[in-house]
Design brief:
It is a single chain. The protein is α+β, with helices and mostly antiparallel strands. The protein has one domain. Helix content is 53%, strand content 12%. Strand 1 and strand 2 form a beta hairpin. The longest helix is centred in the last third of the chain and has 22 residues. It is globular, with a radius of gyration of 15 Å. It starts with 5 loop residues before the first helix and ends in a 13-residue tail after the last helix.
Length: 104
């Protein structure tokens, strides 16, 4: 396995913000520029349409939309999709959406 944690995979995909730390103070900046550009673009575009097809992702999108803006919600969905991909890779099993979570 290439990434030991979901957090490392999210960072590689460029879906987390840059972190500046000095004198014990931590600041979060805009999305990191150290990333896989093509993978980031693909995940963000997929995250924009994923809530239409999966109720779990739609719930995440709605929850984040209440906290902030649309871009924040899209990034939350993209991060969850990375977590799903990591789980599929780790278990070496097909990803199946339960019937109650699929949108008709």
């Amino acid at each position: 396995m290439r990434f030991p944690s979901v957090r490392k995979a999210v960072s590689y995909c460029g879906l987390c913000s840059a972190q500046c730390e000095s004198a014990g103070k931590e600041k979060r900046g805009p999305i990191s520029k150290k990333r896989n550009k093509h993978l980031q673009t693909t995940l963000v575009e997929a995250a924009k349409i994923a809530p239409r097809w999966n109720t779990q992702l739609a719930a995440i999108h709605e929850r984040e939309l209440k906290k902030g803006n649309r871009n924040r919600a899209t990034l939350a969905v993209a991060r969850k999709m990375v977590a799903y991909m990591m789980a599929v890779d780790k278990t070496k099993a097909d990803f199946l959406v339960p019937e109650e979570h699929a949108v008709a």
